[in-house]
Specification:
765 residues, alpha+beta, Amidase signature (AS) enzymes, 5 domains, eleven-stranded mixed beta sheet, six-stranded mixed beta sheet, 43% helix, hydrolase, EC 3.5.1.99
Length: 765
């Protein structure tokens, strides 16, 4: 037997270069090392004899390694210590799932180290060992995170399930479907009149929330002390409050005693709130029963909804679509029927995006109309744009009832920074015709075909109702979005936001935001310089993300203030009461919000202006809209426009919304306008379907989204042309008949939807 000499390891005649080549080739092509049959089996692979378990990819990888390790290497490379250390790095830990490029990088580093002396080679090998150990720990950490996320999701479901089973034993005679079908105003009235018990209502919504979160992952915490709140409410008798016995869900950022508001960040997991936020205390005072914290995107700087702690929330209308964000958990839970009223926050559209994507109503009030004390934020002290607290619900009257309950003396007492302005009933109840401005596009983000159609159709309906509509264009939106808004939000270069991610993983829903913010200012300017000729919008945005001095920040805030005054002046010159504006819809596909940051222009404009703005669903995406979307190119043709077009595809039947906007502190007028929009849709269907009238238009395309509660609908020759899972808004009793079946389904429960249907005849009463 030949004696082993330097340069030969594992098997006689195999040099270190060949062993490394074979082992790396097998490892990267998914084969074990050492190979079955011993190291000698690898020789066959190297020498073209097939080898045990050789794969087609092995030869390709072998070529790479052979280039990294030529057959004639310096003698210092053949030191057995270096080879053994490298073997530990690359082969002894085959379970580590790390990128192939890093393996090849290690090989290149070793090749460079070959020209060094033996001690330097040993030091390099030690570094590789340390890197391998670190990578193994990193992989194990990722696995633990995935397991922890799954366990937290299961824990929420189990806690809700236990609560539902406990209440079921005490409420066996409750007609759950009837309770869930009631609008908030009627539900509150029945609770006040003792026609329903708070316990029965809580049981009904807990059960539905349990079902919804199993499908959408929208709840992060079951607030178990809702039982104590239930007992306290039951003892109040005549002093129940406006929301007596009403179950309510709240966004995770609202502090709740004994619970952590994580914002999807691990640094917040161990900080439990010592007291409730002001709005939670006011809701409890008004008799509401908070029962769930709902999910948010990591750091809440996204209009998607996913984080590494609780995972991704899905849209209940179409699980391939985003529910919006950052109040995405609220939108999904309410749209799925698991909550009748929710509370969210909005700094760039965080109430309005989920409302539009999920087909519900939401209001962003004037920023300081409702107390923000006790809110958890990922960035504090940023005053260019301030957060608004607002309600989310199925209909506008529910939003008004919530605002009515919050704007009370108790809130003004708890937070003296909030102006003591109660809800002004006379404005909300007014019947005076409105002078309404409208626009189809902000000239920064091209509206989708369904967005444009929704605004124009609503214009016609409002004019028919006696309102006056005049064109109105907010001045210079592209400049405002690209410079003032981006500079105001990230005047520190995003450093305060990045602090949240230290030692944490970044969720994909944030897109490339954190990567861009980590770039030094000089590098941002350099990239912006090269992007400007081809993609001017992206170049300006990138340049706007640099850090600024205090003087520059003050100048930005002054320009924002001047812009606000200019818009108000234009508004008053045209004698407008309110404005009808587009709302980004339908819902984007999962992960696409992070790739289309510029599309927030329709919502963030009114955060910049601090105008109250609400969202009302008015239509659904049709097949014609979907076909027209194929021609969508956007105004700039850059990556944002391309990603927006892709994200909007495959949305037939998904809801489309509009925005209703008023001047600052005119929140009641904004709500009144939203109610006008909602009612005109209902009137349209009343005119289309007279009592017991039969419409013969076969086939007729229509939407059930706007029917009044209590309608009975008989659809003949039914064909579903929306998503695969039909869903209805109601309550309705819906009977389907086809030529081959007299009855294929009946619904008497509330489920939200806006799916387009086709039928040869429709009968309603």
């Amino acid at each position: 037997m030949r004696a082993r000499v330097p340069g030969q390891v594992f098997s006689p005649g195999l040099s270190a270069n060949w062993v490394l080549s074979v082992a790396t080739a097998r490892l990267l092509s998914g084969q074990p090392w050492p190979p079955p049959g011993g190291p000698g089996a690898g020789a066959g692979l190297v020498r073209g004899q097939g080898g045990t378990g050789a794969s087609p990819g092995a030869g390709r990888v072998l070529c790479l390694t052979r280039r990294s390790f030529p057959s004639r290497s310096p003698p210092t490379l053949c030191a057995p210590a270096v080879l053994r250390c490298l073997s530990v790095c690359l082969f002894v830990i085959p379970s580590v799932s790390w990128p192939r490029q890093r393996v090849l990088m290690a090989l290149e580093l070793l090749r460079c180290g070959a020209v060094l002396a033996a001690p330097a080679g040993a030091a390099l090998a030690c570094c590789l060992v340390a890197a391998a150990v670190a990578l193994r720990c990193w992989a194990a950490r990722g696995l633990r995170r995935a397991l922890n996320k799954t366990s937290r999701q299961q824990e929420v479901v189990e806690n809700l399930g236990q609560a539902v089973r406990a209440l079921r034993r005490l409420n066996q005679e409750v007609d759950v479907e009837t309770v869930l079908a009631l609008p908030l105003v009627q539900l509150a009235q029945k609770l006040k009149n003792k026609e329903l018990s708070p316990e029965a209502v809580l049981y009904s919504y807990l059960g539905k929330a349990w079902e919804v979160t199993k499908e959408t992952n929208c709840i992060t915490n079951y607030l178990g002390d809702c039982k104590a709140q239930l007992q306290e409410v039951a003892q109040r008798h005549g002093e129940g409050g406006l929301l007596y016995g009403v179950p309510i869900s709240i966004k995770e950022c609202f502090l709740y005693k004994g619970q952590a508001s994580t914002l999807g960040l691990r640094r917040n997991m161990d900080f439990l709130a010592t007291e409730d936020s002001v709005v939670v205390r006011v809701l409890k005072k008004q008799g509401a029963i908070p029962f769930a914290h709902t999910n948010v995107p990591q750091s809440m700087f996204s209009y998607d909804c996913s984080n590494p702690i609780f995972g991704r929330t899905l849209n209940p209308l179409n699980t391939s679509k985003s529910p919006g964000g950052s109040s995405g958990g609220e939108g999904a839970l309410i749209a799925g029927g698991g909550s009748i009223l929710g509370l969210g926050t909005d700094i760039g559209g965080s109430i309005r995006f989920p409302a539009a994507f999920c087909g519900i109503c939401g209001l962003k009030p004037t920023s300081n109309r409702i107390s923000k004390r006790g809110l958890k934020n990922s960035v504090n002290g940023q005053l260019a744009f301030t957060t608004s607290v607002g309600p989310m619900a199925r209909d506008v009257d529910s939003l008004a009832l919530c605002l009515r309950a919050l704007l009370c003396d108790y809130m003004f007492c708890l937070d003296s920074t909030v102006p003591p302005v109660p809800f002004r009933e006379e404005i909300y109840a007014s019947k005076k015709p409105l002078r309404i401005g409208y626009y189809e596009s902000d000239m920064f983000t091209m509206p989708s075909p369904s967005m444009k159609r929704a605004v124009l159709e609503m214009k016609v309906l409002l004019e028919a109702a006696g309102h006056t509509l005049v064109p109105f264009t907010p001045p210079n939106v592209p400049r405002v979005v690209q410079t003032l808004i981006a500079c105001g939000l990230f005047s520190d270069g995003g450093q305060a936001l990045l602090e949240n991610f230290k030692g944490d993983s970044v969720d994909p829903c944030l897109g490339d935001l954190t990567i861009i913010l980590k770039m030094p200012n000089w590098f941002k300017r350099l990239i912006a310089f090269f992007l400007r000729p081809l993609f001017p919008r992206l170049a300006v945005f990138l340049h706007s993300l640099k850090s600024r001095s205090a003087g520059e920040l003050w100048d930005i805030q002054h320009k924002i203030e001047e812009y606000r005054y200019s818009v108000i002046s234009q508004w008053k010159r045209q004698h407008l009461d309110v404005v009808l504006a587009p709302m980004l819809s339908p819902a984007l596909a999962i992960n696409y919000p992070g790739k289309t940051s510029g599309s927030v222009s329709y919502t963030v404009l009114y955060n910049c202006l601090d105008f109250p703005a609400g969202v009302v669903p008015v239509s659904t995406v049709t097949l014609e809209d979907e076909l027209a979307l194929e021609q969508y190119q956007g105004y700039f043709g850059d990556i944002w426009d391309q990603m927006l077009q892709k994200g909007l595809k495959n949305s037939v039947g998904m809801p489309v919304s509009v925005q209703c906007v008023a001047l600052p502190w005119q929140d009641e007028l904004c709500l009144r306008f939203m109610r006008e929009v909602e009612r005109e849709l209902q009137h349209k269907l009343h005119e289309l379907h007279e009592s017991r009238a039969v419409v013969q238009a076969g086939p007729l395309e229509f939407s059930l989204h706007d029917l009044n509660p209590g309608h009975k609908v008989h659809i003949k020759n039914f064909q579903h042309t929306g998503a695969t899972q039909p869903s209805w808004e109601g309550p309705f009793q819906i009977l389907f008949t086809t030529p081959t079946s007299t009855k294929i389904g009946e619904k008497d429960s509330w489920m939200h939807c806006s799916y387009v249907k086709r039928a040869s005849s429709i009968e309603t009463d």
